[in-house]
Amino acid sequence: TPPKLKQSRSPAASEVNKRQGIDKPVEVSKILPGISLQPSGTLRCQAALELSQWVKTVVIPAADQAMPEKGKLTAINQASTYICRKRNSLSEGKISEHARGNAIDIAALTFEKGKVPMTIAPEKEPTMNGAFQRTLNASACLYFTTVLAPGSDETHQDHMHLDLIKRTNDARYC
Hints:
The protein is α+β, with helices and mostly antiparallel strands. About 20% of the residues lie in helices and about 30% in strands. The protein is globular and about 40 Å long. The protein starts with a strand and ends in an 11-residue tail after the last strand.
């Protein structure tokens, strides 16, 4: 089931400039039936579809296996979707994929019985929560071309960054 999309009034690429903006922005409020995006966010359609497929095929089954006591997934808590800015919110440098509607930062997952924040999962952490976070980190690379897991760098300590930047030979950075 595709995400619930609504045509957005966000600036189109031609209105901002050729490097920022979204050609056909969509406002995403639901990722799948019963799973909302909190708060709703503006993305490019392909980013919304990849997010929906990842949640459906990986996140839900992994959560059911690792944390059945949490109940069903009810929301993805995002920290950032579309925003015109440079990478890492710096004043200089390359344009962020957020400025193209190709990126989402996930801060937490909300379940019927509680919230699970995105956390740094050390490779040798022998818990189901650690295994779950590592599963999310690795599997997201099947759907997104950039995955910056919590702790991957200074600006990604408490959230997971996912984007669809185009690279030569469909290369991935995960």
